[in-house]
Amino acid sequence: MIRKHALPGDDIVALVSLVMTGVALLSLGSFPARAIELEVLGTPLTILFSGRMVVSLLLILLTSAGMDAMVRGVSGQDRLDLRFSLSFWILPGLVTLAAVTAVPRQFVSAGGWVGAMLFLGGLLTLVVVAECGTISIDQPYYRAARLGLNIATYGAAMALYTTLYGLQERSLISSTAIILITFPLALELLRSTEEQTANDWLYAGVIALVIGQASWPLNALGLRALHGGALLLLLFYTVTGIAQQSLAGRLNRRVVLEFVALGTVLAAFIGISAWQTALAGKTGIWPAPASEYPSQSEQIGPAMLPGDAAQPGDGTSIDLLWPAPPVEGLPEGLLPEGLAPEGLAPVPARPVEGLDKP
Fold it and tell me: Which DSSP string corresponds to 5-63?
């Protein structure tokens, strides 16, 4: 039986201080790196090993070990089920991973580096406090702590799904990575008591496989990273919500229909947004990312490139919906002699002041 204890304030301060000190030291020097090239089922794969990676892994292990010690101390049980204790390592480990990744990159700016240290250090503190507050469901602040952890978990899922989908890797790599990150996130959301640990792990495994399999057809759609990540998050929310109701013994047809209906409506909104964005990028109705526009067009015609809105033909900027005005000052030899495509009227080239001929 888990007994209620006060939060281990000194242990929390010590853990966060040690981790953030390691993150600060990680920003100071350069580390040797070695790349290992592999081929998995015909897919080339490059793995980079460096001293920075080793130190980062040690800091994540330090965070996990500290959380394990605090969970056992707060629960009053030295022989706690490792599967139950391990579920408390997930979010603190992810925050530590974010710290060792983001903070060293801000070292070029003193203000940005200090701000990143304070923000991620504070976030790690809040996550550790919330984790300690969910060890026992009888604790008075359990609901508030659980709500905060749920929000943090869904936020982490959105960030990770968007990043992985945006990489546009082969499905073998991206789907495997999605399964590996979905399992611990689902485990964090499903965790309740030590007695239900086995069921929590089983449900988390099923959820991870479902999300991983769903990522295969999503990869084929070629959506933008934000839309692909949002669809994966929506499916993750729906499946974990149904699993939570099942573990709590409240699952029935009405609950399933509510989750399915909500998921369908939100998926429709995401799909419409993705369709409008793709249509806008092709027609020039509003700006699309620069990466979607080729550097050279196969056909010369009216310019439909993104730019600032302007009156047609005023020459001050690129028009959104109007053909471009005649282009002056084209270098000789750019267009064949006599070529005058529609929307691009060649005129005699004018010398550019201050530009010497090669």
Answer: ----HHHHHHHHHHHHHHHHHHTTS---EEEEEEEETTEEEEEEEEHHHHHHHHHHHHH
Q: Is 123 exposed, middle or buried (0-12, 13-18, 19+ CB in 10 A)?
A: middle
Q: Same domain for 41 and 171?
A: no
Alpha-carbon span 277 to 269, nearest angstrom = 12
**Domain enclosing residue 118, as ranges:** 1-140
pTM summary value: 0.68
d(Cα 200, Cα 28) in Å, to the nearest integer? 41
Q: Are 82 and 55 in a shared domain? A: yes
339, 346 Cβ separation under 8 angstroms: yes
Q: Would you say 312 and 319 are in contact if contact means Cβ atoms under 8 Å apart? A: yes
The answer to whether position 293 is within a domain reads no
From 260, 284, 308, the end of a domain falls on 284
Same domain, 66 and 166: no
Tens digits of pLDDT across the chain (358 residues): 444 557 788 889 999 999 999 999 888 877 777 777 777 666 676 777 777 888 889 999 999 999 998 988 888 777 777 888 888 999 999 999 888 888 888 878 888 888 888 998 999 999 999 998 888 888 888 889 899 999 999 988 888 888 888 887 777 788 888 999 999 999 999 987 777 788 889 999 999 999 999 888 888 887 888 888 889 999 999 999 999 888 888 888 888 888 888 888 888 888 787 777 777 655 444 444 544 445 444 444 444 444 444 444 444 444 444 444 455 555 555 545 555 444 444 555 555 555 555 5
- Same domain for 16 and 107, yes or no, is yes
Residue 29 included in any domain: yes
Based on the domain organization, do 163 and 272 belong to the same domain? yes
Domain count, the chain: 2
The reply to whether 116 and 159 lie within a common domain is no
The reply to whether 18 and 92 lie within a common domain is: yes
Round to whole Å and give the CA distance between 183 and 88.
Answer: 13
CA contacts within 13 A on the Cβ side of 231: 25
> DSSP assignment, residue 264?
H
Does 90 share its domain with 164?
A: no
> Cα separation of 121 and 137, whole Å?
27
